[in-house]
Amino acid sequence: MMRFLLLFSRQGKLRLQKWFTPMTEREKKKITRDMTTMVLSRQPRSCNFLHWKDLKIIYKRYASLYFCLAIDNQENELIALEVIQRYVELLDKYFGNVCELDIIFNFEKAYFILDEFLIGGEIQETSKQMVNRSIEASDMLQETMEEYMSKPAF
Amino acid sequence: MPAVSKGDGMRGLAVFISDIRNCKSKEAEIKRINKELANIRSKFKGDKALDGYSKKKYVCKLLFIFLLGHDIDFGHMEAVNLLSSNKYTEKQIGYLFISVLVNSNSELIRLINNAIKNDLSSRNPTFMCLALHCIANVGSREMAEAFASEIPRILVAGDTMDSVKQSAALCLLRLYKTSPDLVMMGEWTSRVVHLLNDQHMGVVTAAISLITCLSQKNPDEFKTCVSLAVSRLSRIVSSASTDLQDYTYYFVPAPWLSCKLLRLLQCYPPPEDGAVKGRLVECLETILNKAQEPPKSKKVQHSNAKNAILFEAISLIIHYDSEPNLLVRACNQLGQFLQHRETNLRYLALESMCTLASSEFSHEAVKTHIETVINALKTERDVSVRQRAADLLYAMCDRSNAKQIVAEMLSYLETADYSIREEMVLKVAILAEKYAVDYSWYVDTILNLIRIAGDYVSEEVWYRVIQIVINRDDVQGYAAKTVFEALQAPACHENMVKVGGYILGEFGNLIAGDPRSSPLVQFNLLHSKFHLCSVPTRALLLSAYIKFINLFPETKATIQEVLRCDSQIRNSDVELQQRAVEYLKLSSIASTDVLATVLEEMPPFPERESSILAKLKKKKGPGAVSVTELEDNKREGGELNGEGDRGPDPAAMASSNASTPSPSADLLGIRSAAPVGAAPTSVGSLLVDVFSEAGPAAPSAAVNDDGFLSSASPSEDPAPPLSEADELLNKFVCKNNGVLFENQLLQIGIKSEYRQNLGRMYLFYGNKTSVQFASFTTTVSCPGELQSQLNASDQTSGTTGRGWSPDPTGTQHRVLTDFSDAPLLNIKFRYGGALQNLTLKLPVTINKFFQPTEMTSHDFFQRWKQLSQPQQEAQKIFKANHSMDTEVLKAKLLGLGTALLDDVDPNSENYVCAGVIQTKGQQVGCLLRLEPNGQAQMYRLTLRCSKDSVSRRLCELLAEQF
């Protein structure tokens, strides 16, 4: 199973954290620090896999953002790499040409999309159409830009 | 701020986030956050009831603040309120908050569970999914208690929507992982397996994770999944790239599901049903074939997905380890990847080949890639790839290539990354030891290791070289010479000084004949390093000096001078001061004889598992060291430790060490990790050490007399003893240690010791497969009348893991009276689905309780005559089955446990032995005479014992041995 997924920027700023096993806040901070230092210090064109403790770390950079996924030792690295890719595609499909700012400002959406894709560290649905159908169902309450702007700003 | 055109963006939230982003400093950020927290708190406390939208917005702000890394201590209640909102987006934010910030406040959990319960029964699939996601995200025990029985129902109900089924399957998996005791197997389990047949690929994808986990835990109950998985896989593998619509990923049909199916099959042994197996082999072949086809797309996603399946298929092939053809094909495929331009593939190929190297079918095929792998070690830019290459070299190493591999690893060490040096050092040390045919090569290698990477050479490594040098007298002179030369270097590592001090202190005399390494030169060389060393090393050197005084009386004056100087005798370090004072005194008052006794050469070390291997295993976690490797070590370790049967005698060792001052102490702390030079603990840790090879079971076995005989599951009767059990038994009549039994799954090693009427036996179970055995139990029983003749008790510890069990089973025997049958050992475990039930005879034979009796020729014949009643004698004339070589015969007779008496029989060709069998009630004297006839290749064996049944039994046993 997958243990956690972290999204962080080139400066090491954490943009999204998903923990599939219970962990204390302290452990989370420690792992986040370890992951950012480890992954950010990798040379370009290195392989996308690392061993860390008893886990495999799969990471990939998309523009300014690093996606870092930890999986159990017996799991398949390549398919995990495509889990990241598929998540990026789902974000892209939802936001339309997704960028780091979309994830910063709509972090809750990024979490919702992830929940439709992965649950408890396992894949729930690999079909892009299916995941998007669920997400769109949740956007039934579409708002117009006008409605949005009329909302209080604080 | 990006325009949010979709969804229900919260404007206030967006404004807040951009404020935070605009903060120039951490302080400014904290200030802004505190302001916001105050604002939210006042809103929540205010009299005016908040509308759903505001509540959602504030809860979301709190969540954002929390995710930034700040503590949140309020807002939980508001979040829980959102759960009962009818608006989906409000509910969703509530659930998200709860998932991220779960608080085990029981009051709150009750409210949350209530809300979840409502949503689960709402029949609104979107709400149900949200609730299920929340349970899966939190996965706490309280939630398991509340929902573990409800979710299976949702999962298998006929009218549940597909999307809900998917969430329910994974939610159940999560609960099963946190609280397996709360998830009851039942009627739903059989229906879950059939989800593998579901029309909806998403349902299959989600369900298979659950099924895999359940199968691992209850293989029998779920074994029908094998054929279902094979047929599903076969349908996917043979489908065209467009058949599966959106489940095709970059022209690869259902890659995730394929990988999961292949992974599920790895929970089981190869299918027994020929048709299923044929279909599966066909699938695996198709997957291997597809790897050779030109890619359907240039995109990396295409090749990743395709190769993910390929690697998973190779894992399955390795798991089965029964199809030589597929194994070799897999190996060739990986060989191609070794030179692929994609770094990822090179990395994975190296990793996967590591496991392939341990299969006997493919070991040779893997070895053909040695040059490529060495090249990877030298030229790969990425350290993690180089590390895999080093791992693979280690895995493919055997006698034929050890020298080359060790040399390459040593030269790599000079430039290796700091992060992997320690592990490399351990590996080099292990390989050098394991495959040393020529011990001077071993010594050279280890000294090179210390020279190149001294800082990374842990204590275990240099302890080990000393153990080996001490146990092998053919290498001692060479070691002394080499270490003497190594110490000539102007800057040498402290570990080198330690090894040098120890070895010269023990064996310096072997090179003292050469004037270039005369005693005084040796001493001066060592002493020139003294001042640069740490306290423990100095302590070791002081001990080497006192040993010098014994070895070379001519150095006495010089050394006493050194010991007497203030920097030693008044050293501020207690240990050093004490050693200096004691050694000085010892050297001045003790006579040469006393000195020679006290400072005698170290006795050989008892045979044990290499402490280095133990360290590597610890470093890499259990299972990291492959089974074959351990077996090899078991087989080959004996040579290093100075050939076998010198049973460790704790008392003798301890006393000899107690009287030998400290060099010993430095080695004795190995297991207890005492700092080097911790002399006071030495004797104790040695005792622990001697026992610890046999595992902690030893002491407990001794006190536990009535045993755990009921440990086997009562439902299955033990199998009758194997047909070859008697044959196995005969192997052990003349020896106490060895491999008792071996089949494809399991190897059982045995180690036993006997004293008077007591015996202790350790059984080591080696799992030869790569999966865990489930419910492993062992039982020792005494059939029939043996019960009244022999007490056998066992102390069992579960051994389901891979490789050798850490705690061997200890069995204790107490002979009450003489006996002829053997106790039975029953072993039961589950491998894959199948129950393995195996009964062996434990090689406890009456001769094990022999005490040798030395006697003169006169006494012997007098007793011989006394035992002249016909029933006291048993005689057998038989053909030789084994070599009639004198030495072999002698070794066997000694192994029997009796004393072999020289110059007793008038015919020097004959052998006579005498011994007493100790039972609880009585002693049985036995005399034996073996008359070989070399020409006829025949023996005549005569036994005379004070008890007739013993004569007969011994005669039967022995007739098989020669």
From TrEMBL, chain A:
Gene Ontology, cellular component aspect: AP-1 adaptor complex; clathrin-coated pit
PROSITE patterns associated with the record: CLAT_ADAPTOR_S (PS00989)
Record field: transmembrane: none
SUBUNIT field: Adaptor protein complex 1 (AP-1) is a heterotetramer composed of two large adaptins (gamma-type subunit AP1G1 and beta-type subunit AP1B1), a medium adaptin (mu-type subunit AP1M1 or AP1M2) and a small adaptin (sigma-type subunit AP1S1 or AP1S2 or AP1S3).
Molecular function GO labels: clathrin adaptor activity
Entry keyword set: Coated pit, Cytoplasmic vesicle, Golgi apparatus, Membrane, Protein transport, Transport
Species this chain originates from: Cottoperca gobio (Frogmouth)
Pfam families referenced in this protein's UniProt entry, alphabetically: Clat_adaptor_s (PF01217)
Descriptive protein name: AP complex subunit sigma
SUPFAM superfamilies in the cross-refs: SNARE-like (SSF64356)
One GO-annotated biological process of the protein: intracellular protein transport
Annotated compartments: Cytoplasmic vesicle membrane; Golgi apparatus; Membrane, Clathrin-coated pit
Keyword Transport: yes
UniProt record similarity statement: Belongs to the adaptor complexes small subunit family.
Topological category with respect to the lipid bilayer: Peripheral membrane protein
InterPro entries: AP1_sigma, AP_complex_ssu, AP_mu_sigma_su, Clathrin_sm-chain_CS, Longin-like_dom_sf
Location of the AP complex mu/sigma subunit domain: 1-140
Main location: membrane
UniProtKB/TrEMBL annotation, chain B:
InterPro entries recorded: Adaptor_Complx_Large_Subunit (IPR050840), AP2_complex_asu (IPR017104), ARM-like (IPR011989), ARM-type_fold (IPR016024), Clathrin/coatomer_adapt-like_N (IPR002553), Clathrin_a-adaptin_app_sub_C (IPR003164), Clathrin_a/b/g-adaptin_app_Ig (IPR008152), Clathrin_app_Ig-like_sf (IPR013041)
Residues annotated as binding a 1,2-diacyl-sn-glycero-3-phospho-(1D-myo-inositol-3,4,5-trisphosphate): R11, G12, K43, Y53, K57, Y58, V59, C60, K61
Biological processes per GO annotation: clathrin-dependent endocytosis; intracellular protein transport
Bias kind Basic and acidic residues: ranges: 631-648
Keyword match Translocase: no
Domain Clathrin adaptor alpha/beta/gamma-adaptin appendage Ig-like subdomain as annotated: residue spans: 730-843
SMART domains per the UniProt record, alphabetical: Alpha_adaptinC2 (SM00809)
Organism: Cottoperca gobio
Quaternary structure note: Adaptor protein complex 2 (AP-2) is a heterotetramer composed of two large adaptins (alpha-type subunit AP2A1 or AP2A2 and beta-type subunit AP2B1), a medium adaptin (mu-type subunit AP2M1) and a small adaptin (sigma-type subunit AP2S1).
Major localization listed first in the record, in broad terms: membrane
Family affiliation: Belongs to the adaptor complexes large subunit family.
Encoding gene, per UniProt annotation: ap2a1
Molecular function in Gene Ontology: clathrin adaptor activity
Recorded topology in the membrane: Peripheral membrane protein
Protein name: AP-2 complex subunit alpha
Biased composition (Low complexity): 650-665
Primary role: Component of the adaptor protein complex 2 (AP-2). Adaptor protein complexes function in protein transport via transport vesicles in different membrane traffic pathways. Adaptor protein complexes are vesicle coat components and appear to be involved in cargo selection and vesicle formation. AP-2 is involved in clathrin-dependent endocytosis in which cargo proteins are incorporated into vesicles surrounded by clathrin (clathrin-coated vesicles, CCVs) which are destined for fusion with the early endosome.
GO cellular component term, pick one: AP-2 adaptor complex
Annotated region (Disordered), positions in chain: 624-666, 790-811
Subcellular location: Cell membrane; Membrane, Coated pit
Biased composition (Polar residues): 790-799
Keyword annotations from UniProtKB, A to Z: Cell membrane, Coated pit, Endocytosis, Membrane, Protein transport, Transport
